[in-house]
Predict the 3D structure of the following.
Amino acid sequence: MSAGRRTLKVVCPHDCPDTCVMSVEVEGDRAVALGGDPEHPFTRGFLCAKVNRYLERVYSPERILHPMKRVGAKGKGRFRRVSWDEALDEIAARFREVIAAHGPQAILPYSYAGNLGVLGYGSMDRRVFHALGASLLDRTICATAGAAGYEATVGATLGFDPEAIVGARLIVAWGTNMVSSNVHQWPFVEEARRRGARLVTVDPYRSRTAERSDQHLALLPGTDAALALGMMHVVFRDGLEDRDYLDRFTVGAGDLRRRAAEWPLERVAETTGLDPAEIEAFAREYAGSHPSAIRINYGLNRHAGGGMAVRTLACLPAVVGAWRHPGGGILLSTSAAYPVRTDALQRPDLSPPGTRTINMSQLGRVLTDGALDPPVKALFVYNSNPAAIAPDQESVQRGLARDDLFTVVHELFPTDTVDFADMVLPATSTLEHYDIHKSYGHLYLSLNRPVIPPRGEALSNTEVFRRLATRLGLDHPCLRDTDEDMAQQAFDWGHPRMAGITLERLERETSLRLNVPAPYVPFAEGGFPTPSGRCELRAERLAEQGHDPVAGYVPPRESVMSAPELAKRYPLAFISPPAHHFLNSTFSAQPVFVRREGEASVTIHPEDAAPRGVVEGQTVRVFNDRGSFLARARVSDASRRGLVVGLSIWWAKMCPGGRNANAVTSQELADMGGGATFHDVLVDVAPAETSA
Ligand SMILES: Nc1nc2c(c(=O)[nH]1)N[C@H]1C(S)=C(S)[C@@H](COP(=O)(O)OP(=O)(O)OC[C@H]3O[C@@H](n4cnc5c(=O)[nH]c(N)nc54)[C@H](O)[C@@H]3O)O[C@H]1N2
Ligand SMILES: Nc1nc2c(c(=O)[nH]1)N[C@H]1C(S)=C(S)[C@@H](COP(=O)(O)OP(=O)(O)OC[C@H]3O[C@@H](n4cnc5c(=O)[nH]c(N)nc54)[C@H](O)[C@@H]3O)O[C@H]1N2
Ligand code: SF4
Ligand SMILES: [Mo]
C-alpha cells in the first residue's frame, strides 16, 4: 500500500431502506476504491449494483462543479459560469423582490430525499425558509399515505426487527421488490429459507423478487386490502385467529370480524383478480405459520386507497398473533425507532402562524394555477428532480417553463429540472460532507464525515442555506449553527434507545445499533404506541378525520372495476416502479446503468398486445387524457393481463419525445396523508407512428 492510503467509512445517502455503511480507500485527496463495510451487520460487505459504482458518480465529468446562470430559454439547459457571490447575491435580490411584490409565501422550497441524511434532508434549509416565512411544503411524494395508515393501526412506523426475519417460517414480500429496492434484507430472507421458510410475493408484476419466490400472487393493482380482508375472512370463519392476542392487545376485533365477513372468497377473487382457492390456501398458510413476517414497502401505498391498504394489512399480524414471535409481524419502516427532535432541528416555530402548506405531489397544479394567491414566484429545488419524478409531467414542465418564475436548483447533475433553472448551484456528494443517518430499513445510527475535499466549488445543503441566510440578512442565531451543532440538536440523546450512543462514539465506530434488544420484538406483549395502547383494528382517530374507523377496502380511483366509463377508453392499469439500476431518477443518466437498463420500455401481456397490434421490440405510445410517452414494447406475461409496467424513473429528456412514465400519472391524492398515487393509473397502448 502506498503511503497516505487509508480506509475510511462513509454512509450511503440515497433514499433506500438499507442505509449502507461504505468503506472507502482514499489516497491523498482522492477516493480510489469503495465497497460495502464488511463489519456492518446489515450492509454485510456488499453494496447494491448502483452504489458499487459510486466513484464514477463522484468523479463523473458530467458533475456540476460551479454556480451557473441561465443564458438560453427555460428548459434548454444553457448556462454561463458565475461566482458563488454573484449567485447568492442574485438569489437574495430576487427573493427580496418577490417578497416585496407578493409576500414571502410566494417563495416555495421543493425538496425530497435525494440526500436522506438527517442534516442534508432537512435542517438549515428548513430553518431558513421558516425564518423567511416561505410557503411550507408537505413532502408527500413517497410514503405519507402508507405511514398514516400504518400509524392508525400500529401507532408508529415500527415493526419486526429486520435481522430477526431469519427465524420466520413464512415471509411475504407484499408490494415490495426487495431484490431491487431493499437488497440488504435479501440475505436474511435467504437465510430463513435455508432454515425452511417459504417466500410469497404479492405484486401485480413478476418482479425480480417475485421471480425468486416460492409463490407469486399477481393481484390487480390497488386491491391489496381486499386480499387482506379475504385472508381475515378465512381466518375468522375457521377459528384460526389468536383470540388471546386479540382480547389482550387489540381494540375493535368484533368490528373487524364483521368487516371480514363481508368479504367471501368470490368477492375477493373478483376484486383482486386472484383465484379463490389460491386466496384460501394463502390465508390458511399465513394463519398456521409462526413466525410469519410481512415485509411491505411503499409500492402498495401509491394508490387512491393506499392509506387504508397499509392500515388493513397492518391488522393481519394482530389477528394471528404473529407479533408474539421474534421475526414475526409486519414491517413498513423502522424510522420511528429513532428519537429525532424535529422541532429543534428544523425550527418550525420560526414560521409565521397561518403560513400555507403546499402538497409537493401537486406541483404542476400549484405552478399553473392562475387563481393561487399569492402565486408561486420563486422556487428553490434541492434533493429532488421534479421535472422527472413528479406526477402529471405535462403540467409540471409547463409550470417550470413559466418566464415569471425564478427557479434555483441545487444539484450534482444536469437533470431535467436543472434545464429549467435560472440559477444552478453545485452540491456535494456524501464523500464530501458531514451528516448523520437514521435508517428506514434497519436499527443502526450512522455518522458520515467528509473523506475528500468538495469537488469544484460544490457546497453541502447546510452550507448553501447558511450562506443564503446571511445574504438575506436573517439574523436568528440558529442560522449560524454548525453541522456538528445540528447533529447534536437532532436527537434526544437521553432517550433509552440512545443509551450508550454519543457523537464521540459514532466518530470512532461510525455506526451503532440503537439500544433495543436483539432481536427486537416490539409488540410481543402489546404496548402499541396508539392512543388506546392497543393495536387499533378500529381507530376512532380515523373517524374524526372522516374515514371509516374500521379497517377496510378503498378501491383504486382508476381501474376497470371502479371507473368503468374511463376504462372504456383506457382499459389497462399502469404502474411504474423502480428499475433495478436506477434510484428514482438518481443514476438514470450514469452511462453504465443506462447501458444495463437499455432504454425506456413497457411490459405488456401477450393477450393485451395482440389485439392492439403491438409486437415485441416495437416503439409504442402509452397514453391517457393527461399525456403520453414513448417506450419500447416488451411482450411478456411478467405483467398480468390488464396491466402495463414501465420500470422507472428515466430522465424525461433521455426518452424519445422527451417524456417519461410520469406523463400519464396523476396529481390526485391518496385517501390518507396527502400521498401521491403513481400506481393508480389507467392508460391505453398503441404502436407509435413510424415517422422517423
Ligand atoms: N433500486 C432501487 N431501489 C430503491 C428505489 C429505486 O428507485 N431503485 N427507490 C427507493 C424508494 S424512494 C422507495 S420509496 C422504495 C420503493 O420501493 P418499494 O416500496 O418496494 O415500492 P415500489 O418500488 O413502488 O413498488 C414495489 C413493488 O410494488 C409493486 N406494486 C405496485 N402497485 C402495487 C399494488 O397495488 N399492490 C402490490 N401488492 N404491489 C404493487 C410493484 O410492481 C413493485 O414490484 O425503494 C427504495 N429503493
Ligand atoms: N412514475 C413514478 N414516479 C415516481 C415514483 C415511482 O415509483 N414512479 N416514485 C416516487 C418516489 S417513491 C419518490 S421517493 C420520488 C423521488 O423523487 P426525488 O426525491 O426527486 O428523487 P430523485 O429522482 O432521486 O432525485 C434526487 C436528486 O437529488 C440530487 N441530490 C443527491 N444528493 C444531493 C444533495 O446532497 N444535495 C442536493 N441539493 N441534491 C442532491 C440527486 O442528484 C438527484 O437528482 O419519486 C417519486 N416518483
Ligand atoms: S442505495 Fe441502498 S442498497 Fe445501495 S448502497 Fe445505498 S443504502 Fe445500500
Ligand atoms: Mo420513495
The CA atoms of residues 92 and 472 lie 6 Å apart.
